């Protein structure tokens, strides 16, 4: 068996080969991940996952990309904070199963 070349190890499942130069609307994106040599990939990149589960690779040094990452981090932090507060997703009022009984 030939030796593995860099970036072809079993750890690297989905590496970006090039970065997109297009601006990504924040409304499209639901999450991101970082890739680089530590993850078994040759190219350093930020991989955004869209709400339609598409992967978009971008440059980590692009200011627009950094701002989008910060916005996602804030949104994620806020969601975790709300979850800790114990806010229930159901609307307030009587439970659905509790019906009014007429006498």
Share of residues in helices: 10-25%
Q: What count of structural domains?
A: 1
Large-scale geometry: elongated
Number of strands: 3
> Helix tally?
1
CATH fold name: OB fold (Dihydrolipoamide Acetyltransferase, E2P)
Sequence of secondary-structure elements? EEEH
Strand content: 15-25%
Task: Determine and state the CATH class.
Answer: Mainly Beta
Which residues form runs of ≥5 with pLDDT under 50? 1-12
| Class from secondary-structure proportions | alpha+beta
Largest sheet: 3 strands, antiparallel
Task: Describe the oligomeric state of these chains in a short phrase.
Answer: single chain
Q: Averaged pLDDT, please? A: 80
Question: How much is the radius of gyration in Å?
Answer: 21 Å
Distance between termini? 82 Å
- Report strand order across the widest sheet: 1-2-3
CATH architectural type:
Beta Barrel
Protein model, in words:
This protein is α+β, with helices and mostly antiparallel strands and 103 residues long. The protein has one domain (1-83): OB fold (Dihydrolipoamide Acetyltransferase, E2P) (Beta Barrel), CATH 2.40.50. Helices cover 22% and strands 17% of the residues. It is built from one helix and three strands. The chain has a three-stranded antiparallel β-sheet with strand order 1-2-3, covered by helices on one side. A hairpin with a 4-residue loop joins strand 2 and strand 3. It is elongated. Mean pLDDT is 80; it is low at 1-12.
Give me a quick take on this structure.
With 103 residues, the protein is α+β, with helices and mostly antiparallel strands. Helices cover 22% and strands 17% of the residues. The chain has one domain: Beta Barrel (OB fold (Dihydrolipoamide Acetyltransferase, E2P)).
């Amino acid at each position: 068996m030939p030796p593995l070349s860099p970036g072809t190890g079993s750890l690297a499942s989905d590496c970006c080969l090039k970065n997109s130069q297009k601006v990504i609307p924040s409304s499209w994106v639901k999450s991101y991940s970082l890739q680089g040599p530590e993850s078994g990939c040759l190219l350093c990149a930020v991989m955004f996952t869209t709400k339609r589960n598409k992967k978009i690779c971008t440059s980590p040094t692009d200011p627009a990309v950094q701002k989008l990452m910060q916005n996602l981090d804030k949104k994620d932090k806020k969601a975790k904070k709300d979850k800790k507060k114990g806010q229930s997703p159901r609307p307030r009022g009587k439970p659905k199963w509790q019906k009014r009984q007429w006498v």
